[in-house]
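User: My instructor asked us to take a sequence, write out its structure as tokens, and then describe one feature of it. I'm not sure where to start. Here is the sequence I was given:
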Amino acid sequence: MHTALNPLPAVLRWTPPGRAVVFLLAAASIWCLLAEFYGLCSMRTFTIFILLPATAVLVMMALLDFAKGDRRLFRAVVIGAAGGLIAALAYDLFRMPFVIAAADHTGPAWLRLPLFKVFPRFGAMILGQPFTAQQSDSQFPLLTHVVGWAYHLSNGITFGVMYMALVGDAGRRSWLWAIVLAVGLELAMLFTPYTGFFGIGLTARFVIVTLSAHLVFGVALGKYAKREAGKWPMPGGRRFDVGLSGVAA
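Assistant: Let's start with the prediction itself. The structure tokens for your sequence are:
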């Protein structure tokens, strides 16, 4: 159904169907890795034929809403993407002391965790390059590092968009829901082959540090999204949300 304010069909607007489509398109980033873990297809194949097209469709949906719609979907995608990127940077900044201690062999043993070792391996998987669990980071080409980091940041960005799709209007929701999402995603990842695949010891120390880092991610995302949603009012100068029932409030 079209409206006078937004002539686009519901699936392309910030409605329950539209939010579901946005969520699924954004989730392609993390499914890229899961597809490799569970043997559905290689990460390279998923990136080329699913992740990149899904990202292009998501961007086009946002631009179409900006040009012809009421800009609610565009607003949510921009806030989510920016919030996710900022949260990912905060997440990595929190982990940096552990990475430096592991690389330089300094500080107490409990501080030494090579938490960035997966990034060049992400890149190698996307580029179709072979690697081993024992391979050092310096043995990966620069392009592999760049692609791996880009993929890592894409996860943060898309988690932000997924969060916005779940809550609808971050300005009216508690920012604590972002923590629930971030910590929930990490807990779910611990039940995948992630640690074994990359040769990471699943120790209590690793679990505590990674959960703490995702807590930081959730706080940064939730706080940013709530603040920006308050500063960027909905069309017509008022904030409103379409909940799961489809009723505007």
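For the description part of your assignment, you could build on this observation: DSSP finds eight helices and no strands in the chain. Try explaining in your own words what that tells you about the chain.
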